[in-house]
Fold these 2 entries.
Entry 1:
Amino acid sequence: MADTADSAPGATPESAEPTAPTGPTAPGEAGAGEGRRAPDRSSAHEDVTAPVGGPLADGAANPLDGIDIGVEHPVFLSYAHAVAGARPELVVHVGRAPAEAGAPPLRLSLEFSIECDGVVLAVPAPLVDVEADDGPVSLSTPIALERTELLGMAEQRPTVLVVTMRAGDWCREERMSGPEVLAARQWIVGQDQAWAAMTLSTFVQPQHPRLSDLEREAATLLDQWTGSASLDGYQGGPERVDAAVDALCHAFAARSIAYAPPQGNWSERGHRLRDAEDVLQGRLASRLDAALVLASALEHLRVEPLVVVCGATAVLGYWKSERHSAENVAMPGWQLVNQIDRGLIGLVDTGSLVESPPPPLREVAARARRILRADGSGARFVVSVRQARLEGARPQPVRSVGQDGAVVEIAAPVVERSNTITLENLPEQGGPRPSLPAAPPRVEGWKAALLDLSARNRLIHCPDSAIASHRLVELAVPEAVMGAVEDLIASGSAITLEGAGERAAACRRTGRAFHEELDPPLLAPGIADHRRVQVDVSNDAYFSALRALRSQARTLVQETGTNNLYLALGSLVWTTRGTTVRSPLVFIPVELSTRSARSPYTLRIDPAGAPTPNYSLVERLRLDLGLTVPGLREPAADEAGIDVPALFDAVRAALAEAGLPFHVEATTYLGIFNFGNFRLWKDLEESWELLARNPLVHHLIHSPDAAFADPRADVSPPPAEEVLPTLPIPADASQVGVVARALAGHTLVVEGPPGTGKSQTIANLVMRLLAEGRKVMFVAEKQAALDVVYRRIAAQGFGPLVLNLHDRKQKPALVRRRILDASELEPHPNSVRIESVRHRVEAGREALDAYARALHGTTASGMSAYEARASLVAYGDARPALAITGPQLAALDGAGAAELRDEAVPRLRDCLLGLDGDRGRASAFLGAPVDDADIDAVADAIGELHEVARADDDGLLVALAALDEAEAEVVASVLGATAYPLPALSRLADPAWRAAARSLRDRLAAPPDAPALDYFQPDALEADLAPVRDAVSDATHALFRRRTKTGRAFGPLAQYRITSTPLPRSPRAALDLIDDLVACAAQDRELRELWRRVLPEAAGLHVGTWSAARGEDRSAALREVEFLIGLEGAFDGPPGTALSRACGIALAAAGGGAGERERVRQRVARARDCLGSIAAQPVLRPLPIDRLVALSGALAGMGRADRCADLRAHSALERALEPLARLGLVDAAAQVRERQIGPFELATALEVGLARATIDQRLRHGPLRAFTRAVHEHSADAYADDLASLRALLPQGLIARALASHRERLEGQGTRLDDLKRELARRVRARGIRDLVGEYGDLITDITPCVLVSPDSVARFFPAERQDFDVVVFDEASQITVASAVGAMGRGRSAIVCGDSNQMPPTSFAKLSREAEDADGFPDEESILTECVSAHVPRAWLSWHYRSQDEALIAFSNRQYYGGRLSSFPSPQAPASAPGRGGGVSMRLVEGRFIRSVPRGGERRTLRTNPEEAAAIVDEVRARFAAEASPSIGVVTFNLPQRDLVETRLRDLDDPRITSSLDADDGLFVKNLENVQGDERDTVLFSVAFAHDESGRVPLNFGPLNLPGGERRLNVAVTRARREVVVFASFEPDELEAERSQSRGLRDLKEYLRLARLGPDEYARRSPRLPEPDEHREQIAARLREAGAVVSTDVGLSDFRIDLVLAPGHDPGAPSLAVLLDGKGWAARGTVYDRDVLPRSVLSGLMGWPGVERVWLPDWVADPQGVVDRLMGRLEEASAGAAAGGGRRSRARPTAREAPGGQAG
């Protein structure tokens, strides 16, 4: 074994210089690769000037003396240069001396020679026709080496360069120092590695005769080992080549050759190299000598050798195959390390061959590999002998003395062989990457946030600091067994981890890498046989390091739902942007476990994952280098997973083929790696345009500052009361509103503060959407968030419709089985019962809702019945009230009441104040105002009326007033009809006369129909017409002369003829004419007789015969009869009728004489005029005249002026009263008119009147008139029970609807569905879930239409081109970054983003995984929730808080962060005797110290911790576990070190119960601010940790709390408890000078600590709202106090208050009865469920109130004492029950049927 320093593994020879990753200079360039010596013009040079030819002219100056010359030449020359075909160059600089400036140019020639002791060793070619002028000239010329002379050089010597200048006849010779010349067997590196390699290759002499003996010995060994002695080069394959080399090494070692170390560095001086003769015969060799001899043998055997020059040592290499990548003559070590590690190049540490026997070839190669170092930097350069041969470097001939004594040169034969794969003929790697369209700036920003390809990311760089600090733990897995280890883990085998102990410590001391110390033969059996692997930690650090890793992994699983604990196999060591990084190649997701606190840790694969290549590295290589490695991007697989050796080989091959100076190291790290973001980045990179199909994604990309235009915004959500009965889980109104908007397809943000039931809302939302036939993707980072929702959905029977792709514990076979089972699901809903119960629920809801509307619906008064009652209580009973009835109020509208309040009453008040005394009261009887223009007329009318009335002693005025004008005219006519005596007028009452009179009137009024009167005058009717008729008749029948005879027949009537009308000539017509005249005469006689009977007085006075045919007679008779008929009314009907009475009074007053009749007629005329004046005034007209006379007496008694003034005052008042009259409030107007209500009482009287009218309308005449408490409470209980029954029935019905919708789509899929089922049923070679979703995603989402995913699993399973989902629902969206969310969002059509803007922002992976020393400095990232809020997406608010069983727990956050908008429930106060154990928030002061620095040698794990607080918390936990069987406890700390310290001390207790609880999902947790969101426990112990510094002040650095958004962390921390928070602090709150800080988080912390210190009274004092006044409530409270109860009103710290809290008088500190009223707060709740079911169930269940009662307003109004008695009885029962239960009744969380409580948030 080599024993020199240069053989030490990993050692760097002092002279070794890193080789730049660029190719060497090609041989043959100027200088043959040697550096040039600068021109030397020193005095040591000899100048000889002489003319050429004839004698010198006396005094002639040699022109060459003015020439300056300088020469650059190679530093070294050697025989090896000549053999290698070197053609070095000489560079000559020619110019004039400064003194010769301005002289004409001189043309000259130059000749050169390089001599040593007079022997010319090299002759540079001459330069001719060189022009020397003022400017310098540089020329080069090749040097011809004299090979024979160089061969004769026995030692290294200096040379002389002779330069001869000639110009014409002149000559000048100059001698200067030349190159060093080496001895024939010397070699030096020099400054040109390419020529150093070319010259070194000449010392490889495959033709040396001494090699034959060595080869024969090797063949013999090979025959012994393999049964074949053939040394056949590459024909036997790589294994045969290795065997041949091994045999040569053994044969070489058998010579017992001594090691001769080199003298100095290869670059310092020429080194003599021994040939095979010297080595094999002389048995002395340096490592380089041995390498050259063995290389010579290999070349002779047709195996291509490599000589690796390493500082002061050398290594032999060889290609194992003739097919390999192209080479340079000189290559840096990095260029071959990948080929070496791939096994394509073998290595031999020639220093190991001094051992006999030598080590196995594997060990010899391993030693050589260590000399090269992992990255090849141990090699100065590598010589490719074959490439040197191709470029002309032949082996040096072997000189020997023949038998005849002659020197014989043996030259090597020329072998031509083309066996090289060049880069040009390599198969193309991967092909060009398709170009993608440029993404918008916001998308680019999201991508940058997702994929951190910097060296900060462990996926790109595993720094030494992480390894040293055990954030990464290295495992001792040699590369030889790494593939087997991967197979073991991938197959599910457990690997036990053991500390490396002293070996790990030794590595630390020497600074060596742990993986470089691996001993495969030693380690492999332990891995293979015992499944044990050593880890790079000392025994002391073993448990703390692995415990920390396990804790971090658990935290990440809880926070992100993803296991980020990986075993990283292999590392690519490479340089990017000037930084050398170590990037893992393969990741295996694993789990760490241990049986007890001191048991060793075991490692096994995470069943939810599989080995995966490092895709981030793939992308970084592509971006930085344009390098694609298919074998890494899509690695080859073996039976267990990834073929790790093949992957390593593929990477090494790609690096070698690309000529990159990087290499693969066989490392194995266990640590936390953020591996999930790559898929999200890839999703955005390739599919952002597809994702932008979603309206919200498009909005966030292109217009986030504008208002979001939801395409479904015009779709109205269904009413909440319609949605509520369709939800399987109880839901309050705010939750129902969210579901309703989701059903309408709206995109919205749902703000759900802690404990408001987000998960319950999401569960309801998902189930209802499924029932509508929609597909839902539910997205959350945390598995816990998905689990909560899934459990709720599954509890309702929807589990088979849900596909959980986030649960890492699910096996693929189970997922396939679930999908298959879901395809066969058959629900059996009880549809008939569902409908019947639904109808009952609806009926109950309508009844309860009707009560609320009746009680709190606003009436025309502007008040509800409840408000009216409160007003009446407030005003009291003594207040006057306007007389307004319920029906009158019902007739009003809102405008009427407003008019009364705003206009009428103020104006009426002003009017009353403006009146002079009682002025106007005398006119009040009028009721209506008098127009100013009519005042005088009204005053006069009233005065005239009283004058007429004074003369009216027989009632004629009143009788006349009762008549209308026509009737009054009848009376006047009766009095004026003097032609008719009074007895004659009496016949007007005779019905017979009336009939005859009407007959006469009608016949007279009808137009006469008598054609005969056109021929004869009326007097003809009195003639004897019979003879004439007979004569006409006879003439008509005459045979002859009928016309003549007819004319004669009319002769007697000739005196009556109207001559203007000739008689008819026709006999027949003449007969008709005489007949008509006869008829007219008869009719006239009849009318005359009727006339005489009807109008006897007129008939008696008529002169002559009266004839109706005579116009004047007819008209006069018609007028007379109509006059008398007009008087009939005076005699019509019984005597009591108005007209008859008036006529009777008038006629009675008139007596019988005409004079009396005239006097009465005048009296009637005056009365009529007076009444006309009265009738002309609208204000007087409505009043009966007798009442008018009676009421106006006071007014009439005034003088005219006073009368007018009174009328004016009255009119002003009536105008002010007009609105009351117009609105029907007559009684109220009368009250004011009569001055029953003074002007200053009017407003109050109006309000009291309206309140009374409201009560009257609603409680006595309206829907509440039949209210009874028993019936109403029965209705409420029945509604709650029916609703619970309906919820129990609903799931099967909803599932049936969902399946019907989705299976309708499946029916159209034909054979695809059958194909999918066959794939799901396969047991052998079953396809992966990702593969199935990719092909059958649309069918799978119809079978299981709800999918639970994380953002990462979305990108893994669902192609972006398919928009499979109708709705994407996010939970805990405040912890999902925008970049992580848009991929999932884009796969749906609408989005519901649920979270809390006041809770934790997305927690960076660095904080969770502790990648940085101080993760507190990482800025918060933007969440999708805040992004959507900023982008103006509509928001909904969940307002009921159910978590805190002591209201003080949420009061701080409600006030500080939620503006008091949360409705929390008060609870009975905790007993003062048990501070810190009953509930609420309390504080424990600890004499603690915060350790800010650790002295040298101290325990660093206590850095940044408070051990005293940790101890106090551990003691508290122990005490609670001792007191309870399974206490629900969580511990929250401000920083990670304190968290670690508390958990470590808890685990160090080794208490099985505590340890088991720590490991349970829902057991004891210990977390810091960053990762406690989503957790809740009954009791939370809060460790502040920070304490006073050395100066006694409390520093203001509180870690993440100081950062922007620190208050959100505090909010999360203080809202985790259900019953109790105990704050452990080491300082008083007032000692924290938060006012000196700009941090809101710090100021809020101080406030919270003060509240914790001061107790619950401080919460009540700082309640976010003032008490709500309620006079009705206060009246009940007063009555209860009178009954002996201790009563508190308006109890609570939020906008939900318990109206009355009752405690017994003997125990005022024990509130036992909560009394709820039906007040305004009750009515304002959004649903009947929120009003009548939810509060009572939560208070009696969750909050533990011993008694909860209701008081209904109608019940109180009807029987207040009965209500008081009932409540006092219930108080006695409740307090007795509480006392029997040991004080405060234990509280259990309500069931799903009791309250829609929240779980996490």
Note: The mean pLDDT is 83.
Entry 2:
Amino acid sequence: MPKRTDIKKILIIGSGPIVIGQACEFDYSGTQACKALREEGYKVVLVNSNPATIMTDPEVADKTYIEPITIEMVTKIIARERPEALLPTLGGQTGLNTAVSLAEKGVLKEYGVELIGAKLEAIKKAEDRSLFKSAMKRIGIAVPESGYARSYDDAMKVVDEIGFPAIIRPSFTLGGSGGNAAYNIEEYKEYIKIALEASPVHEVLVERSVLGWKEYELEVMRDLKDNVVIVCSIENFDPMGVHTGDSITVAPAQTLTDVEYQIMRDAAIRIIREIGVETGGSNIQFSINPENGEMLAIEMNPRVSRSSALASKATGFPIAKIAAKLAVGYTLDEIPNDITRYTPACFEPTIDYCVVKIPRFNFEKFPDTDQTLTIHMKSVGEVMAIGRTFKEAIGKAIRSLESGRCGFESLWPSGSDKWSAEQRTEFLREKLMIPNPDRLWHIADAMRFGLSLDDIYKWTHIDHWFLYNIKQILDMEARIKQHCKGERPFAPTPEGNNEFSMDREMLIEAKQYGYSDKYLAYLCNVEEKTIRKYRQKEAIRPVFKHVDTCGAEFKAFTPYLYSTYETSCEAEPTQKKKIIILGSGPNRIGQGIEFDYCCVHGVFALKELGYETIMINCNPETVSTDYDTSDRLYFEPLTLEDVLEIVDKEKPEGVIVQFGGQTPLKLAVPLEKEGVRILGTSPESIDIAEDRERFAALINQLKLRQPDNGCARSAAEAKVIASRIGYPVLLRPSYVLGGRAMRIVYDEMGVEDYITQAVQVSPEHPVLIDRFLEDAIEIDVDAICDGKEVFIGGIMEHIEEAGIHSGDSACSLPPYSIGNDIINELKKQTQIMALALNVVGLINIQYAIKDKMVYVLEVNPRASRTVPFVSKAIGIPMAKIAAKVIAGKKLSELNISMNMKLKHVAVKEAVFPFIKFKGVDTVLGPEMKSTGEVMGLDTDFGRAYAKSQMAADCSLPLTGTVFISVRDKDKKSMIPISKKLIHMGLKIVATQGTAKVLSENNVSVTPVLKATEGRPNIVDHIKNNEIQLVINTTEGKAAQEASYSIRRTALVHRVPYFTTVAGAVAATKAIEALKNGSLDVKPIQEYY
């Protein structure tokens, strides 16, 4: 069928900020869809509040609204743009839920907007668990027995019939939020309350547990002529009970017989037809009982999902692009496959390799939370690796994780060598029975310890096939250790010096088993370089193979490659001038999608200059690993070993390391030592900026000011330095990103505590000690330098004061409270430092301003996480310009306006994952905890800030009651805030101390009890929806613990809360702006 001509303009709803369960895979799918629809001549209108995405770049859609994704705002966009159609399946759960609400509230009908891709009825059938259950009954597909509860009493009746263990799943939530498994009635009562609150429709499904069953997913596509293809089968390494986003997954499925696969395939086709997803991709999850092969359908996502991104990258089949084309009327047989250019999209992909995905966790950021993996998702990112076998792929995936492990390292705790055999077995049993992020390594320890595969299976329910493969990897390890101990690995050479040697066949086999040089070096007790040199001398080198969707049956036109140890190489490097860009690896807190954004812009810019671009990355969620972003894509781990092999094969002009965050920066010096040319700022300059002592010397030489500081190499030295500087001090290890293990301490006890618990201090790992500037204003500056000139892109003022990590603070561009003289001083200092460090490319500098004095906090001669935000705010693509400068262009040639005056204000607000982690406090500090960000754009600060709060799902109230409880030094600043709030018609309640200060200053306030002072107290009031806004600041550990329940309850009940005075001031300004008139929407194309 030809494409539809009755539609001219299509609205796409994005997925908003990056949160756990909804990450950059939706940037990748949205970007693909915008491109595909515009290719077909449609006008595309996009709404998404996340500035760190490629899809919100002004070039991607015709009209781009960086506005909050709320019903009210999207309605305004529809009224303004009048699209004929809405494509709801590309914005994750956010996009889907918003589309459903717009349809149910009659907005789509009123403006004549049609849902394409998936109709309302189909979305509801798949998403509403009771409708899904009855649909499965109609087509005779079994689902777990279950019952619905819309209240606590319902839930008690349901569990009587189902029994324990019971799985609790709230309807219409994302990443399994609010879900749990209850093993007894006590747990059940607690979890039901959480789940009912988590579901936007207050509905929970309670189902029979299939914990321990095998879990599979099929990625299915359907068109309007009812053609259906299965793009990819995915098998979870972890059994049911671990959310698929937190499970190691393998594609294609490895342990199904052909008959079982055909049964599952047929079931998937019947399901997509019954649910009625007319076009596009869906993801269907099944579970199989390993005892008897019984198969159940678990759930279906009627949209592009996290697994779709994985399936796309695993097969080379662009699911989102094809879904967009199917939605406008094409059929699968009419769409060509871009990779082969010969086969149509109705050819199911065939893959002749194995793909393994391992999730990346960030539990070290939340030390108070439980690390057990359950049915609600906790991972913040993932890596994917491709190999010819499961063994090779899992080895490559482990070293892609950047967790400091390069193989199956042992995780026995220190002192365990003194344990008895019983104690060891008990330790392993606990680690294997309770799913946790390290279970894979504990399995390896259990095998070395001599536990049988049957025992390990009994405790983990991980299929024997996987366990057997890991066992083979470990048998190989034992042989290598034996070889390196038994035969001397050093053969004397004629000159009399010892050279490393190893059995050639054994080394080839080890590499085919996925062993990294680094892990082999560890086993043989030599340097990694020794292994690499020996391997190269023996001509044991990887070859590169194509991901071509067709098992090499047809020629592949888009070079998408992976390495393996075989004989024939398919890389065919060209003779063009080319540049390699290193990606940023798996998402994590502190290094997220913003860095991928910069990498992609780097690729675009270098293409414009006529270079061939080569991307190396291992993150399947991103735009950078899309098959058509760069000219050549190597889906490989970002380790020295893997990058050197690609450099050797491609022979580029150089490598760019400054776009991908800390991951490629760490490789800069080692690569340079191996003779690789690093483009842009030299590794030497990067080191001066990163090494605190060299940096302090530079600042003194430039006669700039920085907070007093010192560098301690022992615990005793730390105390001496801290008392010389004067408390409070900020402590941190050197060379970190995202504020890992940073802490502000107020006395010597605090220093002692930090050094014994948080970090090991040693001469190799010094601790940095800085004077902490209390109540200073923090500023971020992003600039580009070409070695001669400096272009200052943006000066951002943080809303939260210094001491809160810059990634967690809201910020405003342009600054809203500092004068022009200070702005000019910041510009001057930025120029001085950029030129002194010989920066070529991007530079980010953080300043603090206290008593009108400017202090330099840190300099990062690389892309920072604010680059996308600044680029969107000023309408100049900073990363693109930086890439051209790195390639040798001068700023003066790139005609950018140096002194622009913004007529609008942009506010960035951080988005946090606290709700996912039980027992975690929401107070912010120097360690970064946010997973994503949103942007509010408007004509003044108050309105822009209000939009940023709406977008972060924390809409400010215009009526109701505000609760205030602040530390002593903040009490005075609450007086003007309270008066303003009362003037605007809100009521104030406060705890005793705060209330006393307020009423003494003529503020009418009602005192309430603290959580420790009896009932009904403030926590009860929040639970009863009697409080609409919380302002709560604390000092010291005791006060923080006492008021924890206030903040946690506000979080769970979605009451906006502010834990800093600056945040409360900004919120008051925003409420004032909202009171003075409603918010309007405007596409970013009209702001510039």
Note: The first strand starts at residue 9 and ends at 13.
